[in-house]
Design brief:
The protein is mainly alpha-helical. 81% of the residues lie in helices and 2% in strands. The protein folds into two domains: 127 residues; 70 residues.
């Protein structure tokens, strides 16, 4: 991760140096318009540092998204647009300063709006992801419990039935629903009862029936 940080900052540094070579080696009048575009360009370079840090510090680097676009790409697009604007005002330094301010400010504002909105969107996506994980937890835990029962079962026939039940759970609809809470609670209660039962066969059958009912209701709720 540190290597990625170093490479990213090196790229920004090289771009920054090249920008200054082009800005000051190629002859042009250093008017107020030039310096205005220059100042906004410096700001565009500086903003890359926190943006790249945010991107690389995330466990999944490019998951900060605005409309599906990685945040780091939003930052680079901003930098490129600002450099294009600088190039225009460098070539035509006699253009009015107010025009340079407006153009560069608009580019900066669009970038800021995209970044802020994108981060808000990321928060919403994270919240939905967490909600989905919670809804999937029922099936995952249920499968684990039944598989553990199958592994510890000494009766071969019961072991086969438990293994088949675990497979049925595995291929059940992974998404839960608030309207299925009572039904899922009954399934959990049956599994808990099965942990201490001497004869598990009738409980396995009951759980299988309840699972079938749950899967059918899941299909209806998605309908």
């Amino acid at each position: 991760m540190k290597k990625k940080h170093s490479m990213a900052y090196l790229v920004v540094g090289i771009g920054f140096a090249l920008f200054h070579v082009i800005a000051f080696v190629i002859p042009t009048d250093k008017t107020a318009t030039f310096w205005t575009a220059y100042a906004f360009s410096i700001l565009a370079f500086v903003t890359q540092i926190p943006l790249w840090k945010i991107a690389f510090d995330k466990k999944e680097t490019l998951n900060s998204k605005f409309l599906g676009i990685p945040l780091i790409h939003v930052g680079l697009t901003y930098l490129i647009l600002q450099l294009i604007a600088f190039a225009v005002f460098k070539i035509f330094p006699t253009l009015p300063m107010w025009l340079a301010i407006i153009v560069c400010a608009v580019i900066l504002a669009i970038f800021a709006i995209c970044s802020i909105t994108g981060q808000a969107g990321v928060g919403e996506i994270d919240r939905l992801d967490e909600k989905i994980k919670t809804k999937r937890a029922f099936i995952q835990f249920l499968q684990m419990d039944i598989e553990m029962l199958a592994n510890s079962e000494s009766d071969s026939e019961t072991k086969i039935l438990l293994t088949k039940l675990a497979e049925k759970v595995r291929f059940s609809d992974p998404m839960s629903h608030e309207m299925l809470c009572d039904l899922e609670s009954r399934i959990i209660a049956k599994v808990e009862e099965m942990k201490t039962a001497d004869d598990k066969k009738y409980l396995i059958q009951e759980i299988g029936t309840l699972l079938t009912e749950r899967n059918k209701k899941c299909k209806i709720l998605k309908g």
